[in-house]
Amino acid sequence: MPFIIYNVKQKAGELSTYSYLKKVSLAGRKGPIATYVQSLGLAPKDSGIKWHLSEQNILLILGQSVENSALIVDLKPKVERNVSLYRIEDVWGDSRPGWTPIMLSLRTLYVDLSLEDADSFKKSFNDKDNVFDGDLIHEFLYLQGGFTSGGWSWGPIGSVNAPLLWPGSLKFSYDKIIEKFRGDGINFEDIVY
């Protein structure tokens, strides 16, 4: 699941144009997540240290311009003729000794758009065919790294890669999802399943 920085050109009343700049890593001991968490200078606790990074924070840590850049994840890079691109708005985490469950708050750009030449499309596109109208979704992942051990690498790749969230981590994630929905003017209690 590659994370990609795109240059974004936005003009009032016009479509936004995204141009591929480069792939980046969010994981690793020198990645933006570990760099930020370790910069907090907080003493590790068994209960974990809860933190938040916005897209802008991550771009700054990566040395990128915040003004004309977007951090995008390609959720299905190996699926042929598929475009599934999501813009990362926020990352929340609960760093504990040895591991860090995280939650990504994502804004939809393209979801399962079928194109003959998906790879070419991903190099430069605009948001005109975004039928999902920027829906807000969330993804849970984890890093094998915390305050006492680990290289801050992603959990094993496979058909299942999800953290087990204990009550404190789950409540923290749930609270952040509710805040984001309220910020979008959505009453979570009115959502029909």
Could you walk me through the main structural features you see in this protein, from its secondary elements to its overall organization?
This protein has 193 residues and is an alpha+beta fold. The chain has one domain. It is 20% helix and 38% strand. It has four helices and nine strands; from the N terminus they run E-E-H-E-H-E-E-E-H-E-E-E-H. Strands 1, 2, 3, 4, 5, 6, 7, 8 and 9 form a nine-stranded antiparallel β-sheet that branches. The radius of gyration is 17 Å and the shape is globular. 25% of the residues are buried. The mean pLDDT is 85.
Question: In terms of topology, how is this protein built?
Answer:
Blueprint: E1 3-9, E2 17-24, H1 32-39, E3 49-54, H2 55-61, E4 69-74, E5 82-95, E6 100-114, H3 118-123, E7 124-126, E8 136-145, E9 150-154, H4 167-183
Antiparallel strand pairs: 1-2, 1-4, 2-7, 3-5, 4-5, 5-6, 6-8, 8-9
Summarize this, please?
By secondary structure, the chain is of the alpha+beta class. Helix content is 20%, strand content 38%. It has one domain.
What gap, in angstroms, lies between the N and C termini? 28 Å
Portion of residues within helices: 10-25%
Count of the domains:
1
What percent of residues are in strands? 35-45%
Contiguous low-pLDDT stretches (5 residues minimum) are none
Order of helices and strands: EEHEHEEEHEEEH
The best one-word shape is: globular
Structural class: alpha+beta
How many beta-strand runs? 9
Helix segment tally:
4
Main beta-sheet strand count, sense and barrel state? 9 strands, antiparallel
Radius of gyration: 17 Å
Mean pLDDT over the residues: 85
